[in-house]
Specification:
The structure holds 2 protein chains of 2 kinds. Chain A is mainly β. Chain A contains 3 helices and 21 strands. In chain A, a hairpin with a 2-residue loop joins strand 19 and strand 20. In chain B, the strands form 3 sheets. Chain B has a 33-stranded mixed sheet that branches. Chain B has a 3-stranded antiparallel sheet with strand order 34-35-36. Chain B has a 3-stranded antiparallel sheet with strand order 37-38-39, with no helix packed on it. In chain B, strand 34 and strand 35 form a beta hairpin. Classes of the chains: A mainly beta, B mainly beta. At the A-B interface, helix 1, strand 1, helix 2, strand 4 and strand 5 of A face helix 7, strand 38 and strand 39 of B.
């Protein structure tokens, strides 16, 4: 009997994802030791429409900006979950779910929700080995204006970084739209081993997003003004500059669905900021940062038998200054490697080992883990990180920094707890001499996936 | 012409004279014909025909006793005869002697006596040819007519002195070698005859072990020819360890051949069944009469059956051979049956009965006899179980396979069974871990079953109407009921049809249910996912028995069934009118009158609740209608339940009218929605959605209404809920059907009032890498 119930529960989940109106009928005969499975309506259906919220203060169509699906296309359960998750994450509603209604020609969905008060105050605390204890205070007004623009401020405090941020998502069109203006004022202090800066940024970004059946895309573009003050490290003491900033993020829906439990699909995130000094030392520079993640669940086993991850990161600063003049650039334009986010055999921003950094860095990391060896929620993994730094933006210099390592990821009740153990190696080329730079680097993080 | 006639007459006369002269010469001098040369000549002729006979030192002596009687003595050494063509037969006798007398009679030459027959230390080999198709396989083998065989034996000439023994006697069948050993010796003048035959089972017999043997000893010491003294002993041991032991004696001293009086014992040990019988049998051409007694000892069926002085009489004198049997029986339950039962005297221990068989046309051929059988049993009065039953049946013909036809048997059954106290039966059953469920296990009182069947010629069926009366009580419980029904048993084309129709009228009932937990109520209906063998479509193998049943259970109009349960504050008055029929879902109606119950931490009143089966539904689905009233200081809330049981709709109403969300919040959390936390508001939305979609069944509703709920999450895509309930202060338990992996993971988990674990994805922007961070958060909405 227990096998029949187990099958019923799990097959119900499986068919619901792809076949919205599919039904499963399982019967078991204990005497014959037979389990009979009948599956009906196992075919995809198009999503015909979304019924508006009942008795809601929200204007019709406001929630469309969070849709991870397209009307008229094939219904997918994951897209609905992503949409609800985006809505709740934004804070505009405290809970949201879609209810499916099967029709002969497709499916329609209605929505159940719970709307809280419009203002949200949150105080949070966390920690990781890179930045130590973390504190965060945030305030948000969620339903400002006709189309529920948001206005918020947050204060992020850690030993390495303190940030005060004021931002808004201003839906200024006279109809529900994904397009909005995003004015941002950021004031932050960074206190790294090799430098200490105080920086502020004022940006007025125009932003929009797009979703199809495969991926979601977010893009923003707009003018930005930055003011940096250097307390330690090789950089101008004061620098202010202005320019144009653009961000683009492309994320597969499956990547987003499993974001908190990474297992498949792809993500690409790229930022560009082209700036010119407004006073002080004159310079012109363009910074480009791109990072990607590609995850593969080998044979799509559940729980994953083998998850392969390829992560890459390229940071480049193109400047009119020569390599010997790079110290004129503010720290913002220089790049470092090491730490939880890239080469894990080194401590945070430990590469190249000086406060000047590089104008170009590249990193690629390979990771292989399994949820089927120890426990579904306990993932042992192996990784190999490789990176290099270039004095010039268009070339990478020797040595190569690489670090093999092992780790364990525990899906704890309070988030993903990761433990990484890695050794840091430096070698002069692929066939050159290699020596150990760091015998053992330990990283522990809560919630951080990569 | 006359001359020719004369010549012819003379020729015939001379031929007759010559023939008579030759015959006379042969009669007075038989050596002329019966000598070694003539016998050797005939032996050569037989050899051509495939039969080889040889001997050494043949000696023939013929004496004329008188003019009509001759005494002949023949002796041969190493006499051998064999079938030289097929080698099927071979016999060799080292020394063979025969001394016999013949006599001329008007009917011809006949053998009048054998003075001596001696064949010692013979070796015999005989191969049995496989049966050819002369007799079709499906024809029954005709039994040996023992009566004729005895008559033939009695007309044989007397043998005065006989001595035959075989030291090797082998019979080879197609797959087995049988070995016999026998000796026969007799001397009429010395008034003795003895035949001894030993048969051993062959080594490779598929059924019997080599220890199996049959010994027959036939002797006579006090008669000219007969009677004989017969002793036979057969001991058969099967390869499975089953044993059959048969003894047969004829021990009497009399001068007449008839009646033959035999006696003996039969002992059968089939491991699970043991039979021990002693019998006496008188045989004469007019009748066979037998007396036997003994016992049956069952191992799997823990009973002993004692056969008293059973009498059997077969009258052979008439054309219609009559057989009568009368056998008193005592059936006793074995002590082992009561070994586990406290007191050991709880149930019926013995039954006195009688088995009577009357056949008015007995035949040994394929048991095609006509007659009837009567079996009756009766227990002593005043015992815990009083039984009185009689089964009367006409004797059917027994087919080679299957059961005899009902039409031939025309059985009639009369039965009265009364359990003076049903609790003694329950105690007995409990000892075997098969007692009735609570609360029925505590009932006491009588249960009576009466049935009187008759065979219906028109329907070709055995109709058994019955009445079962229960008058049961226990402290605070009553069950008074009368069940009337009928069982029909019919056979057609090797298919057995069994039909049960039963009406149960519950006249008065008050039951106390066992204490039930709030969190997991027992299922009202069986889990449809679990099939029983009865649910399976009948296969061709199952088609031999077709069972149909129709059961109706009804309470009387003004006498509801009262159920007392810890779940309700009052006795629940239940009415029912339900029907059970095979291959159909439960149909009818169950409804309750108004009663008080504790729901949502308040005294609630069930105004009405009814479950009515939906007509023509293939599944066990009920149309449920109900109304509950829950009174608060400021409001009265009405909960209306309607719809099919698998899709129940809940409607929340109040006086004064409140929004539905507020009603749900008051019911589940005790205050309107605006006074609750955001998670409680979230739960209210989930309950509202689940109620609208019919995801909350009656049991779920009761569970929600009787348990302190912390939060409820409803997954509309799977139409399932997950509820977090408060178990004790500061701890909670999540119950329900589980969450979809990944579907709701990772956003925000509530730790306590306004405290959450939040996992946030942080946009990197142009100066930082994107990452996720987990924070312990206190969140306030205002």
């Amino acid at each position: 009997m227990s096998k029949a119930v187990f099958l019923h529960n799990n097959l119900s989940i499986l068919i619901t994802f792809d076949y919205p109106c599919g039904t499963i009928d399982i019967t078991a005969d204990p005497e014959l030791a037979e389990i009979d499975i009948k599956l009906k309506e196992l075919y995809s259906k198009n999503l015909l429409g979304v019924e508006p919220l009942q008795n809601s203060h929200l204007k019709p169509g406001v929630l469309e900006r969070y849709y991870a699906f397209q009307l008229g296309k094939i219904y997918n359960h994951e897209h609905m979950v992503i949409t609800s998750r985006r809505i709740v994450s934004s804070g505009i509603l405290t809970s949201h779910q879609f209810i499916l209604k099967c029709q002969d020609d497709g499916v329609k969905v209605s929505q159940i929700y719970s709307a809280g008060e419009p203002r949200l105050l949150s105080i949070g605390a966390g920690a990781n080995t890179d930045v130590g204890p973390i504190f965060k205070i945030a305030w948000k007004n969620l339903t400002t204006g006709e189309y529920d623009s948001t206005l918020g401020t947050s204060l992020f405090l850690s030993l390495r970084e303190q940030t005060l941020r004021l931002n808004s998502a201003w839906y200024l069109l006279d109809r529900p739209s994904r397009f909005h203006l995003s004015p941002v004022l950021t004031l932050s202090r960074e206190n790294e081993d090799i430098y200490e800066t105080l920086s502020s940024e004022l940006a007025l970004l125009s932003a929009t997003s797009y979703d199809n059946q495969i991926f979601g895309l977010w893009a923003s573009l707009g003018p930005a003004f930055k003011y940096d003050r250097q307390y330690e490290g090789i950089a101008p003491v004061v620098a202010d500059y202005y320019g144009v900033r653009g961000d683009i993020r492309l994320e597969g829906h499956k990547f987003e669905y499993w974001k908190h439990y990474p297992r498949e699909d792809h993500m690409l995130n790229a930022n560009i900021f082209t700036a010119q000094a407004s006073r002080g030392t004159p310079f012109r520079a363009t910074i480009l940062r791109a990072q990607s993640q590609h995850l593969f669940n080998f044979k799509n086993r559940v729980p994953p038998w083998l998850i392969l991850g390829i992560r890459s990161k390229v940071n480049m600063t193109f400047t009119s200054l020569g390599a010997d003049q790079s110290f004129i650039l503010p720290t913002y334009f220089r790049h470092f490697l090491g730490g939880l986010s890239d080469i894990r055999g080194f401590s945070r921003k430990d590469i190249p080992g000086d406060s000047l950094g590089g104008l170009g860095t590249a990193y690629i990391g390979l990771e292989a883990g399994s949820d089927a060896i120890l426990h579904e929620k306990l993932r042992p993994f192996l990784f190999f990180d490789l990176g290099a730094v270039g004095e010039q933006s268009h070339q990478l210099d020797m040595p190569l920094y690489h670090s093999p390592g092992v780790g364990m990821r525990w899906e704890s009740p309070i988030g993903a707890l990761r433990l990484n153990l890695a050794r840091g190696f430096i070698s002069e080329g692929f066939n050159g001499p290699t020596f150990v730079a760091n015998p053992l680097q330990v990283h522990v993080s809560l919630g951080e996936e990569f | 012409m006359l001359k020719i006639l004369k010549k012819l007459l003379w020729s015939v006369l001379i031929f007759i004279v010559l023939l008579v002269s030759v015959l006379t010469l042969i009669w007075f001098r038989p050596q002329i014909l019966l000598n070694e040369k003539t016998l050797a000549y005939f032996s050569q002729r037989l050899k051509i025909a495939g039969h080889q006979i040889s001997w050494e030192n043949l000696h023939i002596d013929i004496q004329n006793v008188d003019h009509f009687k001759r005494k002949i003595f023949i002796q041969a050494e190493n006499f051998c005869a064999k079938d030289s063509l097929l080698n099927n037969f071979n016999v060799c006798i080292p020394l063979a002697k025969i001394n016999f007398s013949i006599e001329i009679k008007t009917s011809g030459i006949s053998l009048i006596e054998i003075d001596e027959l001696s064949m010692l230390d013979m070796t015999i080999f005989y191969r049995v040819e496989p049966r050819r198709s002369a007799v079709p396989d499906d024809q029954p083998i005709q039994p040996i007519d023992t009566i004729k065989w005895f008559e033939t034996l009695s007309t044989m000439p007397p043998v005065f002195n006989v001595r035959i023994n075989a030291k090797e006697f082998m019979i080879l069948t197609s797959d087995q070698m049988w070995e016999f050993e026998f000796s026969l010796k007799g001397h009429i003048l010395q008034k003795e005859i003895a035949l001894k035959l030993d048969i051993d089972a062959p080594k490779n017999h598929p059924q019997w072990t080599q220890k199996s043997k049959v010994q027959i000893y036939l002797s006579s010491q006090d008669a000219d020819r007969l009677p004989l003294h017969l002793e036979a002993h057969a001991s058969l041991i099967s390869r499975e360890g089953e044993k059959i032991d048969l003894q047969l004696f004829d021990n009497h001293h009399r001068h007449n051949f008839y009646p033959i009086e035999l006696s003996g014992k039969v002992k059968v040990d089939l491991k699970q069944h043991k039979i021990d019988l002693a019998y006496g049998l008188d045989y004469s051409p007019e009748q066979i009469s037998a007396l036997f007694k003994g016992r049956y000892n069952g191992i799997t069926i823990p009973i002993n059956v004692q056969f008293g002085q059973c009498k059997l009489n077969l009258n052979l004198a008439h054309y219609d051979k009559d057989l009568l049997m009368d056998c008193p029986l005592t059936v006793k339950a074995k002590k082992s049956l009561f070994a586990k039962v406290p007191g050991k005297e709880n149930l019926i221990k013995s039954l006195e009965g009688n088995l009577g068989v009357s056949i008015n046309n007995f035949s040994t051929e394929a048991l095609k006899s006509k007659g009837n059988i009567k079996i009756s049993f009766k227990s002593k009065k005043g015992k815990p179980i009083e039984l009185n039953t009689t089964i009367f049946s006409q004797l059917p013909s027994f087919p080679e396979k299957g059961l005899p036809e009902l039409e031939e048997m025309k059985p009639e059954i009369f039965l009265t069974l009364k359990l003076l106290d049903i609790n003694r039966l329950f105690r007995f059953l409990e000892a075997f871990e098969s007692g009735p469920p609570a609360p029925f296990h505590s009932f006491k009182g009588p249960l009576t079953l009466q049935l009187e069947s008759s065979y219906n010629d028109k329907q070709d069926a055995l109709i058994i109407p019955f009445t079962l009366t229960a008058d049961l009580t226990s402290p605070n419980q009553v069950l008074l009921s009368e069940i009337n029904g009928q069982v029909s048993f019919m056979q057609k084309n090797a298919v057995t049809y069994l039909a049960l129709k039963m009406n149960a009228d519950i006249q008065k009932a008050k039951l106390i249910l066992p204490t039930l937990g709030h969190r997991k109520l027992p299922r009202l209906f069986e889990d449809k996912r679990i099939k029983k063998s009865g649910d399976r479509k009948p296969t061709s193998k199952d088609n031999n028995l077709i069972l149909n049943y129709q059961v109706a259970i009804k309470t009387e109009k003004n006498a509801p069934l009262y159920i007392q349960s810890n779940l309700a504050k009052e006795k629940i008055p239940v009415h029912m009118d339900i029907h059970l029929e095979n291959e159909k879902p439960l149909s009818g109606k169950i409804w309750v009158d108004s009663f008080l119950i504790n729901l949502f931490r308040k005294d609630a009143k069930i105004n009405y609740l009814s479950l009515k089966s939906i007509a023509n539904s293939k599944k066990e689905i009920f149309d449920i209608k109900g109304k509950l009233t829950i009174s608060y200081t400021d409001y009265i809330i009405y909960l209306l339940i309607a719809g099919p049981s698998d899709h129940l709709r809940l409607t929340f109403q109040s006086d004064p009218p409140l929004p539905e969300k507020d009603i749900i919040s008051i019911l589940f959390f005790g205050y309107p929605i605006e006074e609750g936390t955001s998670e409680e508001a979230d739960s209210v939305s989930n309950i509202q959605a689940a109620a609208a979609r019919g995801a909350i069944g009656l049991a779920s509703l009761y569970f929600f209404a009787s348990t302190p709920i912390e939060s409820i999450r409803y997954d509309p895509s799977l139409n399932r809920y997950t509820a977090k309930i408060r178990v004790a202060k500061g701890t909670s338990l999540t119950v329900g059907s589980g969450e979809v992996e990944g579907g709701i993971y990772g956003l925000r988990k509530r730790l306590g009032k306004d405290f959450y674990i939040s996992t946030e994805y942080q946009e990197g922007g142009s100066d930082k890498d994107s990452s996720t961070t987990t924070l312990l958060e206190w969140i306030l909405r205002y």
